[in-house]
Amino acid sequence: MKLVFATNNKNKIIEIQQLLPKTIEIISLESIGCQEDIPETAATIEENAIMKANYVTQKYGYDCFADDTGLEVDILNGAPGVYSARYAGEQKDADDNMNKLLKELENKTDRTAQFKTVIVLNLNGQQHIFTGIAKGKITLEKIGNQGFGYDPVFIQEGQNLTFAQLSLQEKGAISHRGKATEQLIAFLKK
User: Which secondary-structure segment (H or E) carries 72?
Assistant: First the structure.
């Protein structure tokens, strides 16, 4: 089975392909000739994922899946949330985003947060939604050099290493994206 993954984020493509069985081949947006930035202007993570999946299906005619992920920090009323990638500006720089987050949490004792991934699958004219959540906390500083995004500042409940200190396989087994992808795989195997 071939499925388009509606993302230009090469890190996400690598991470998801590692989690999927070999019988499912991921096709990139680049491979179908989609060079444009797909709009992500919705108010929620779920709506953004739906918007991206529908864009590819409607404009290019492919079965596909799209994801959107956000980091939701309790004391910041769920921010950065849907704005996680561009929290510190449109340049979408992970270091800038983490620096802004750590600055906003200075002197805060409540550092609880969660990563939330929503995957939307458009397959055979039907839409299916899968959600994965990883609860944890924000560290006091960046630790580790694996992964991407906010991985160096997030420790999942029950762990003592940041996502950036874990291998791709270790992270995939416990992360928000891993949980949503497990649901996607279980559905596709049916």
Answer: strand 64-73
Considering 68, 93, 96, 110, which one is annotated as catalytic? 68
Strand order of the β-sheet with 154-156 is: 25-27, 2-5, 64-73, 112-123, 126-138, 154-156
Q: Quote the pTM value.
A: 0.90
Catalytic residue flag (residue 96): no
Could you tell me the residue range of the domain that residue 105 belongs to?
2-189
59 belongs to an annotated ligand binding site: no
- Ramachandran angles phi, psi of 139, nearest 5°: -75, 175
Which three-class secondary structure state does DSSP give residue 137?
strand
CATH label of the domain that carries residue 58: 3.90.950.10
Does 116 carry a binding-site annotation? Answer: no
Digit-coded pLDDT (tens) for 89-135: 988 899 999 999 999 999 999 999 999 999 999 999 999 999 999 99
Quote the number of domains for the chain.
1
Residue 148 annotated as lining a ligand binding site: yes
